[in-house]
Amino acid sequence: MGRDRIIFHIDINHCYAQIEEMKYPALREVPMAVGGHEETRHGIILAKNDIAKKSGILTGESLREAREKCPDLLIIPPSYDDYIYYTGEVKKIYRRYSDHVESFGLDEAWIDYTDSEKLFGDPEALVSRIRQEVKREIGLDVSAGLSWNKVFAKLGSDRKKKDGPFVITRDNYRETVWPLPAADLLYVGPATTRKLLARGIHTIGDLAVYPRRFLKKAMGIPGEMISLFANGGDTSPVAESFVHPPVKSVGNSMTMVHDVDNLNDLRPVYYVLCEAVASRMRDHGMEGNVVSISLRSAGLDWYGCEKKIEQYTDVSGTILHTVMELVVSLYDFEKPLRAVGVSVSGLRPFSGIHQLSLFRNEEALEAARKTDLVMDEIREKYGYYSVQRACTAVDPELTSFNVKEEHTVHPTGYFQGRKMTP
Amino acid sequence: MELYKRYVDVILYQKRNGDIVPLYVCWENGKRYRIDKVLSSERRASQVGGCGMRYACMIQGKRRNLFLEKNKWFIESYQP
């Protein structure tokens, strides 16, 4: 086995709130949180400062809940341009010391220091130096973790040690990592946690010693993967800076202006989302054959499923058709829906060649694609709202949003298109 | 003494290699202060909020910190 890698994970502490504090230092004196716009109902706490944290404010709770806990909480709408700018500046500092800096969202990054060690010396000292430089130059506090793999490095930075990095080595990981709850591990979300608890797995240590083949049998590849993570066996590389992996999926999601409790109201919303997704796929020159949806109810529960369709497509109508099938099979509208999303994967370059089917109206399909193309062109020339589907006119409040430009989220997948090899 | 963040107009000289030399700070009342010397220029966070390129300047015998924040200039001022 070769030399162990040296990997840092650096995290800007409660990023959005800290950037606001850096811009306006007086905010450090009052309970403050950054939250979405209430009127458009993206009304959740995105980040909070230390004083607000002491009042029990939680990231992700609604603005109303937060105000109940802390009536004089100051809520600031997010200014994403600033967050993108300042986090970019922070990452420029990281890049002084390595060309392998991989962003994980705006506020987090992995840095592979292995090949830079001879240039800049002791890793722990360097992390301290990076922290000082970020503090001095950008005015932000960061916390860091140091380990031989990305998963443990991230666990380290989550521990938020005040000075220097939290170091997880092959010698100490059993004592430091294993007692932590399994939910702290990357890729162990609420659903996985429930599955693990059902097997009596509470901590990362439990997970590490649980027979891997049972996990694989019960949960498939992800089960095998998290077992490997728990044992420090993550070998995924830190991506090189400025290298963009190929697009693996195209998706859009949004929180609706008001809750929707029936299929008829949901359809136009999904039509707008599917149009955006299809249009972005055409921009990339891609077509795909796996459609997945995600639904979030008013109770904030998540639902999701996907389906493979027989024909590769980049037509909004076809995607919508599959989406509505999935919604019907997945959701009963017992609780109204608050947020919905759709994404298409299984992408390949658009070929223009399709297997004709005896049971499908090929002409209608071709016409639908042409309609999409014409709408793209009109919107490009005269603006997004210059042409709309008639169905979106039923409840314009619900559907008048330009997803493609205003709501495109760029989630960062952990593997960024790379294959995980256990 | 308390410091305040004041955005100001700046007259500057840009060299052909891209370096920027601030020459005058212009106050709202029209008064113009000559920067006698730039002592240092480095990236720094400001104690009055914001961060950017900090030009430590000598103005009328006093040291003042002038910041280029993204594309705007501000000075750490003793006057609100």
Please give a handful of descriptors for the protein shown.
heterodimer, A: 422 residues, alpha+beta, Alpha-Beta Plaits, DNA polymerase, domain 1, Dna Ligase, domain 1, 3 domains, 5-stranded mixed β-sheet, 5-stranded antiparallel β-sheet, 17 helices, 40% helix, 19% strand, disordered C terminus, B: 80 residues, mainly beta, 3-stranded antiparallel β-sheet, 8 strands, globular
The radius of gyration over CA of chain A amounts to 24 Å
Mean pLDDT of chain B: 94
Strand-and-helix sequence of chain B, N→C?
EEEEEEEE
SSE order of chain A, as H and E? EHEEHHEHEEHHEHEHHHHHEHEEHEEHHH
Helix/strand-derived category of chain B reads: mainly beta
Residue share in helix of chain B: under 10%
Largest sheet of chain A: 5 strands, mixed
Give, in spatial order, the strands making up the sheet with the most strands of chain A.
5-6-1-7-8
Portion in strands of chain B: over 45%
CATH superfamily of the largest domain in chain A: Reverse transcriptase/Diguanylate cyclase domain
